Amino acid sequence: MNIPVVLFFLLVFCIPVDLQDGYSQVPTKQQPTLDGCVVERFADQTIVNCNGLGLTAIPHDVPPDTTVFDLSYNCIPVLKNDSFASLPHLKQLNVSHSCVHHIQTGAFNNVSHLKVLNLDYNDLKVLQKFSFSALHSLEKLLLSHNNLTAIDPESLHNLTNLKCLEVNHNGLNSLNNGSQIELWQGSLGRGCPFAMIGKLQTLLLHGNSIDAIDAQSFCGLFSLKSLDLSHNNITHIPNNSFADLKMLEKLNIADNFINDIEKDAFHSLSQLQDLHLQKNSLSFLHTETFYPCTNLKSLNISFNNLTKTVSKPTFHHLYHLKCLDLSHNKLEFACANLVMFQGLQQLEFLDISFTGDIWGHGNCSHTLQNLTNLVTLKLSYCGIGNIPSKAFENQKNLQYLDLSINILHSLPSDIFISCNSTNLNVNLKGNHIGSLQAGMFSLLHPALELDLSENDFFQVDSYTLIAFHNVSIINLSDNPFDCNCELVAFVEWANNHETQVAGWNDTDTVTDHYKCVNEKYKGKSLEDYSEYCPSKSPNSLKLTEIIVPSLAAVIIVVAFLLYTIKRYRDSRYQPIIRFNLEHQDYLYDLFIIHSTRDVQWVRVFSARLEEEGQYTVSYIERDFPGRFGNLLEAMDHFVKNSRTILGIITMNSLYNADDSGLCRHGLEIARQLEIEQGAHHQLKLIMLEDMDSMMNNLAQGDRCRVFSIIRGKTYLKWPEDGREEPQFWDGLKKIIGNPVVWQDEYAA
């Protein structure tokens, strides 16, 4: 037998530390017994391996100095009296997977030094009284995966040094059989199934059919440190269920059907550090439920039906809590009632995925501010549509932030302004983000990793590229890229930073995750822009360098002449305008692009701008003059001669067949002028309806076209509450500035 086999024994038998040194030595001799077992001798240990030999009885020629005996994977149905009496030095015995269905009362006579007994995976249905009474030195008893339906307390008689009992995956349905238990100290009364093993430290009972526990279930287990009752049928945890378990450190009652935990159920568990309550049917928790558990470090309440914990200080006394999992509940977060995280300054892990929007619909930026030691924060699948400014203020230790699969369309520019975290990994996969503000990550450590896959990046604008400068790994795969020349800057940047862009030029995968989605180039690789932007392809540079400057000069001259002629011909129809010298090219302060179905709102809106703000406002419904041949020509005129274009965004303007084409045309012109002329033309947007619902109601192709116009744009949301209108008007005046055009009178 070689060293790997020795290591196998160490794992199988859970050999105590004081025995391991002997097994690390090279065996001095190997020899088979008459039954084919292998014997290995060490300096002070003898190991006999009879594993998997098809034995139906215990061999008779086993050396009497054997300390470790492996009989696993045989078929020995009965362990008879004195089966091991000739092995007085035995310390480890493995009879697992051996068809054992009966143990006679004297089977373990004369093996009083046995410390580990493994009877897992057999067919035991009952344990005889006093079955193990000779094993007063036994420390670990493994009885998992049998067919036991009850535990007779007297079957555990005399196991005074037992520290670990595993009875997982049996048929136990009750822990109390009503028998009278007599201890060496006296009487504990009826129904204490484990009272004979008062030194027990680990009790594992998961995967049974236990349907109830009470104050007598674990009485007498004063030294117990770990209790596993998971995967049973428990529905109720009554008061004082664990009253004697004052040393308990780990309690697992997950995967049951618990719908109620009485407020004193955890009374006396002041040493508890790890509590698992996940996958039950809890709909509420008493405020005092965890009050005694002042040393709790990890609490898992995921996959329940909790709705009412958020308004109560349920976790206030858990000053040492480091890990809290509330995911997969039906929490209704209300900003005014968010007191549930108060007092958790030591919290390092918080998972509230699949719950609700933690920031609600108000200014809840303070929600996480006291959790300054967070390392991991999971907020996926929460329906989050907006994140308040400075939401992650004071997060100096945050390393993983999961905001995936939400409904975010943008991020505030100061979201990380006071976050001093290093090595931050931010997961924003599966949102609706289409652009980033340039300085968003400027104060973060350059080790930032950012996942923006499966979002709405139709283009990657210059501001977004600037934001990427402080990102070590960026993932933009599986976005709906609208391939045109505007994407070339990103493609060239990605080609120069391909180790920084996850999945870029990845030859190890069959699927290309950077593809065009617009109809003309659908399925084409984003990485080669020679097809969708040949003018900027390296092969066409020499030709364009010759033609483009000359053609541009001709166009500029012709355009200037036509513009001069047109201004002269139109002067008889124009109002007499006096211009601010710095803005002498504008005819209007504001031009409003809107749907005909929204004209009533626009009339009231423009009247207030003209009366209170002294702005020169135009919109086609009112100001369409007869000199224009059609609406498109009029739209071009107003857009090109206005300093600021206000786009009124509704489903009518995006989708109404009657005029959505005209609105999009105007927005496209305004967007193009803004790109070409910068601050000389500004496109601003006002959302009269919810942005998320509008975008979700558009077809993919329409979303692509609309988003290519509005991505990265400043917009204001028209307030549903009239009391918030003053803030709206103040914000509007800030983004459009002061009037620069005014008129005295109209020409005849």
Describe the structure.
The protein is of the alpha/beta class and 748 residues long. Among the domains are: 1-72 and 82-96 and 110-118, no CATH class; 124-260, Ribonuclease Inhibitor (Leucine-rich repeat, LRR (right-handed beta-alpha superhelix), Alpha-Beta Horseshoe); 537-570; 576-746, Toll/interleukin-1 receptor homology (TIR) domain (Rossmann fold). It contains 13 helices and 33 strands. The strands form 6 sheets. It has a 20-stranded mixed β-sheet, covered by helices on one side. A 5-stranded parallel β-sheet has the order 29-28-30-31-32. The protein is elongated, with a radius of gyration of 38 Å. Residues 1-25, 178-189, 540-544, 568-584 and 743-748 have low confidence and may be disordered.
Shape-level CATH architecture of the domain at 576-746? 3-Layer(aba) Sandwich
Rg from alpha-carbon coordinates: 38 Å
CATH topology of the domain at 576-746: Rossmann fold
- Count the strands? 33
Question: Distance between the terminal alpha carbons, to the nearest Å?
Answer: 113 Å
Largest sheet: 20 strands, mixed
According to CATH, the homologous superfamily of the domain at 576-746 is Toll/interleukin-1 receptor homology (TIR) domain
Number of helices: 13
In helices, the fraction of residues equals 10-25%
